[in-house]
Amino acid sequence: MNKINKKKNKKKTPYMICKEKIVDSYMKKFERGELKSSNNKIVKNRLQAVAMALSLSEKVCEKKISKKDIEFKEERVNKMIFDKDGKFLNTKLQLSNVKNSLFLLDYYKKKRSTKKHNLLMKNLLSRALCASFKNNLTPNVIKELKKII
Fold first, then answer.
1. What pTM, to 2 d.p., does this model score?
2. Measured between alpha carbons, how far is residue 115 from residues 36, 104, 139 in Å?
3. pLDDT in tens, 98-143
4. Closest by Cα among 87, 105, 88 to 145
5. What is the pLDDT of residue 7?
């Protein structure tokens, strides 16, 4: 089976469905020219519309996260930290991946899983350090990382 068939067979969780609905509604508003930013101006940049939709959907759908969603986030975070050989990547660190990492850190703290929490904290900071050597950290990523230091 190739990758395309695997994605089609993947059953969506309530969290994924919730996020999809919110992003769809925001993008429809954007396409009609009705989407406004916080300062009441019409959004003309598609990337800004996507960022707004994703940000809101993360906040609204947070209560619907299941075990399957946690596993998916763990998988994404591990891909962001390590390459195929198990070495730290030094490519640009994406803000969404850092936010997923922070979410997992909070989740592990609530579940009192200190081993996982400490390991993820160490790996995330090491990954950020590797990225910083090549100037692959944006100000927003640094701002998010300051929350855990």
1. 0.74
2. 43, 13, 29
3. 988 999 999 999 999 999 999 999 999 999 998 888 888 889 899 9
4. 105
5. 53
Q: Which two tokens stand for residue 133?
A: 């050597």
Inform me whether the pLDDT recorded for 1 exceeds 50. Answer: no
Q: What is the largest CA-CA distance in the chain?
A: 48
Confidence of residue 5 (pLDDT cuts 50, 70, 90): very low
Residue 42 has a CB neighbour count (10 Å cut-off) of 10
Domain boundaries defined on the chain:
3-62, 66-146
What torsion do the CA atoms of 84, 102, 104, 23 make, to the nearest 10 degrees? Answer: -90
Which residues are registered as beta bridge partners of 82? Answer: 88
Pseudo-torsion of CA 69, 73, 74, 78, nearest 10°?
Answer: 150
